[in-house]
Structure prediction request, 217 residues.
Amino acid sequence: MKDILVLYYSLHGSVKQLAQHLAHGVESVPGMRARVRTVPKLMTERDTPARQVPEEGAPFASHADMQECVALALGSPTRFGNMAAAMKHFLDGTSGLWLNGDLVDKPACVFTSTASLHGGQESTLLSMMLPLLHHGMIVVGLPYANPELNQTRSGGTPYGASHWAGPDGREPITEAERKLAFALGKRLAETASLLNVAQRRSAHPSPSGEEAGGLPS
Prediction:
């Protein structure tokens, strides 16, 4: 089994729900398993100290999770058209992975949730792609071969899965949003599987021609 890291930050639960649907898509691909992780909320000097271990739900992510997994799905709510500070803080601490090239050629995707329908879904997704591209990752999105992209009146973009949570954050995940999150997880896992096979073949080429003792063609 190969692990795919589904890494998210969720304050009110919407991004967490998307992560779960995306993880189901990952695990629909044979040989692939979702490793679901989150990041801690950033605390100010006025706040109580942050917990080192979450009380419930997914464990906090480590750099080892990123090293060990063959792909990454990254999710965050939008903050003024950008990713949340907690996720940005975690990514800002990955310079050691960048120096070692630990994430080069691994596929990645992004997903988000917003309170307003035009509250920065696409700009947030694009902002999350930037550090992944700097790490040398291969970013995959959602093609319009997924009919829900043309049918949805809530979340859903070609840049990644998304959800419109409403002003009070209580709008449920729609069927179109669920299908798109599942499709994105499945596409990420299929891409990781194909890349893994290609990398193995490159590392261990089959003997042919003169190498196999035959004559050149």
Remarks:
- The first strand starts at residue 2 and ends at 8.
